């Protein structure tokens, strides 16, 4: 749905961020120019959630969630952006004009949600009341699922041939059911119910709407588990089973356990182990990682102990590490599922097993890679060690955090029993080759190189300091130009500022990762005794830093000349002398 920018801005201005957030967080207190409270998205005792009425944004400096008033309502109410806009518009009596096309599109999705919700209620009622569901009820009881869990997850049963009769009597058409993924059509034009003779597990999105179904056969079907296909309202790579049911706990604990099946989620949550979710018949994806990072700070992967399970864990780790999500891997005994273990040994034993078997991301990878390569007894072979280190360094490179990289390299050196400096040299060599590839063959190579080098900052760079000063003192925009910024992100923000975008306008053009960086940058307001003097000093320091980097580049060329690896060039020597003199005069 398209809403005009003017209407969105009108809704925003009519709903000040501090007044809206105060309705959810009555303990919001003023601290200087900003407001602070304990973050509603994770459990904390010391407030780290900051609201800036002036800049119209919020930011938690602990869990890194950030955004504008619409984003806050989205996250707290588990609704989409468009629904948040509509909610705030209704709150302030602002009418939103919808086009005929928007109305038709929304109407079609609304119809799908209605069909899916009604179907879930039908399946649930059949499980509880239908004489034909006795075998399904026995299966549920055998697996240890109680009535409370059945109601919480709206578990149901699809008796053979009954669903199609019931749903058509409700006034829905076969075409509607096909779009919802509830039936299939053969080449001969015969319709079949997807979930027939299966225990049915409704799949909810984060807003609590039924979007699809999973079914476990209780007949003699070769296909034990079956999911309904992707539709206009369902994407299996963007949903996690059980996430909606555990959202209230995630806001407090922010810890997720990723498992493999429906029962692996239902039983742990039934036992009070919150944060248990599962993928839906697909490998872990980038979209899953984004979903996980939105609601948790730490992820535990609990896959089967066989090779397929370990491979799935490794692939999931590689994706999570790229998104800088802290993750660990735990293991159950072979041929035992999470629900079976809990029903047999109970919650405390299960939690102890998780803790005792828990391995860090790099610990799991070292065991899998080095252990796998040295399984034939050639553990101390230099070739095996070199191959293991090379593979593990590819994994290390997936993290963009230099502190994590350093610690992981230390772990690799210790476990593989090789010199740490040698591992570092190998890592740097790989890194240089990767950068060279970007420079030679990559499009927009400067941006890609920045991405490779990017790291979480604990303090602001000179360019970030300059940007911070300009954003908080916009009179200085005219005294600056984009050439002051080599950092791609800083230059982009500056150029958006020159175009006249306000803080919220800039924020809404950025990726989630850059939103976190930008909101932290702008809320870290630096108070200067003399802004003009500070501005001049920062500009001078930026110029000096560039001259120093240029001198270092020339110094490398001179070293190559002195080693006879490059032809001597007097111009380069003269330029080096001039730069040295300039830097000496600057106090460097």
TrEMBL record:
Question: What start-end ranges are recorded for coiled-coil regions in this protein?
Answer: 82-109
Q: Which UniProt keywords apply?
A: Coiled coil, DNA replication, DNA-binding, DNA-directed RNA polymerase, Magnesium, Metal-binding, Nucleotidyltransferase, Primosome, Transcription, Transferase, Zinc, Zinc-finger
The entry's cellular-component GO terms read:
cytoplasm; DNA-directed RNA polymerase complex; primosome complex
Q: Which reaction does it catalyse?
A: ssDNA + n NTP = ssDNA/pppN(pN)n-1 hybrid + (n-1) diphosphate
Q: What is its EC number?
A: 2.7.7.101
- Per the record, the domain of life is Bacteria
Q: Where is the signal peptide?
A: none
Co-factor remark: Binds 1 zinc ion per monomer.
Which cofactors, if any, are listed as required? Zn(2+)
- Give an example GO molecular function: DNA-directed RNA polymerase activity
Which GO terms are recorded in the biological process aspect for this UniProt protein?
DNA replication, synthesis of primer
Entry-linked SUPFAM superfamilies:
DNA primase core (SSF56731), Zinc beta-ribbon (SSF57783)
Ranges of residues in domain Toprim? 254-335
In terms of PROSITE patterns, this protein maps to: TOPRIM
Q: Where are the zinc fingers (CHC2-type)?
A: 39-63
Alphabetized PANTHER family for the sequence:
DNA PRIMASE
State the function annotated in the UniProt record. Answer: RNA polymerase that catalyzes the synthesis of short RNA molecules used as primers for DNA polymerase during DNA replication.
Q: How does it assemble?
A: Monomer. Interacts with DnaB.
Q: Which family does it belong to?
A: Belongs to the DnaG primase family.
Q: Which NCBIfam families match?
A: dnaG
Quoted from the entry, the domain comment is: Contains an N-terminal zinc-binding domain, a central core domain that contains the primase activity, and a C-terminal DnaB-binding domain.
Write the protein's name: DNA primase
Record organism: Endomicrobium trichonymphae
């Amino acid at each position: 749905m398209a809403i005009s920018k003017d209407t969105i801005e009108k809704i925003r201005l009519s709903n000040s961020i501090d007044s809206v957030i105060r309705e959810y967080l009555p303990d919001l207190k003023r601290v200087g120019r900003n407001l602070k409270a304990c973050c509603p998205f994770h459990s904390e005792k010391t407030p780290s959630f900051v609201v800036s009425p002036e800049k119209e944004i919020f930011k938690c400096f602990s869990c890194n969630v950030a955004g504008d008033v619409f984003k806050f309502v989205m996250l707290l109410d588990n609704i989409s952006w468009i629904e948040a806009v509509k909610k705030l518009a209704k709150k302030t009596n602002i009418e939103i004009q919808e086009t005929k096309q928007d109305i038709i599109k929304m109407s079609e999705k609304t119809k799908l949600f209605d069909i899916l919700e009604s179907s879930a209620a039908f399946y649930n009622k059949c499980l509880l009341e239908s004489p034909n569901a006795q075998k399904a009820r026995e299966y549920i009881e055998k697996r240890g699922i109680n009535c409370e869990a059945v109601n919480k997850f709206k578990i149901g049963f699809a008796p053979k041939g009954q669903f199609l009769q019931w749903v058509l009597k409700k006034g829905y058409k076969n075409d509607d059911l096909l779009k919802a993924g509830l039936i299939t059509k053969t080449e001969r034009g015969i319709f079949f119910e997807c979930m027939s003779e299966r225990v049915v597990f409704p799949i909810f999105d984060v807003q609590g709407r039924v979007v699809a179904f999973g079914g476990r056969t209780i007949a003699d079907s070769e296909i034990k588990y079956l999911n309904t296909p992707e539709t206009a309202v369902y994407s299996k790579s963007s949903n996690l089973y059980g996430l909606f049911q555990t959202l209230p706990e995630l806001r407090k604990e922010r810890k997720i356990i990723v498992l493999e099946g429906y029962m692996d989620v239902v039983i742990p949550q039934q036992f009070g182990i919150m944060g248990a979710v599962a993928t839906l018949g697909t490998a872990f994806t980038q979209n899953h990682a984004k979903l996980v990072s939105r609601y948790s700070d730490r992820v535990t992967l609990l896959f089967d102990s066989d090779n397929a399970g370990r491979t799935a864990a490794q692939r999931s780790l590689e994706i999570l590490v790229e998104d800088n999500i802290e993750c660990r891997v735990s293991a159950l005994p072979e041929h035992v599922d999470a629900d079976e273990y809990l029903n047999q040994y109970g919650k405390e034993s299960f939690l102890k097993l998780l803790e005792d078997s828990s391995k860090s991301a790099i610990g799991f990878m070292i065991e899998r890679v080095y252990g796998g390569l040295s399984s034939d007894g050639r553990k101390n072979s230099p070739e095996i060690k070199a191959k293991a280190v090379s593979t593990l360094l590819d994994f290390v490179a997936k993290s963009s955090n230099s502190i994590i990289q350093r610690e992981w390299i230390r772990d690799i050196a210790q476990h593989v029993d090789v010199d740490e400096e040698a591992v570092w040299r190998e890592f740097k060599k790989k890194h240089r080759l990767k950068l060279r590839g970007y420079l030679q063959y990559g499009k927009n190579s400067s941006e890609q190189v920045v991405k490779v080098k990017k790291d979480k900052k604990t303090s602001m760079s000179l360019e970030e300091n300059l940007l911070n000063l300009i954003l908080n003192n916009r009179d200085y925009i005219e005294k600056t130009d984009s050439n002051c910024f080599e950092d791609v992100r800083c230059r982009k923000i500056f150029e958006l500022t020159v175009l006249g975008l306000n803080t919220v306008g800039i924020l809404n053009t950025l990726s989630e990762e850059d939103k976190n960086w930008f909101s932290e940058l702008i809320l870290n307001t630096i108070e200067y005794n003399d802004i003009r003097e500070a501005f001049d000093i920062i500009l001078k320091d930026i110029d000096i830093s560039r001259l120093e980097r240029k001198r270092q580049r020339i110094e490398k060329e001179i070293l190559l000349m002195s080693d006879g690896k490059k032809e001597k060039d007097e111009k380069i020597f003269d330029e080096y002398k001039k730069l040295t003199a300039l830097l000496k005069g600057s106090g460097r």
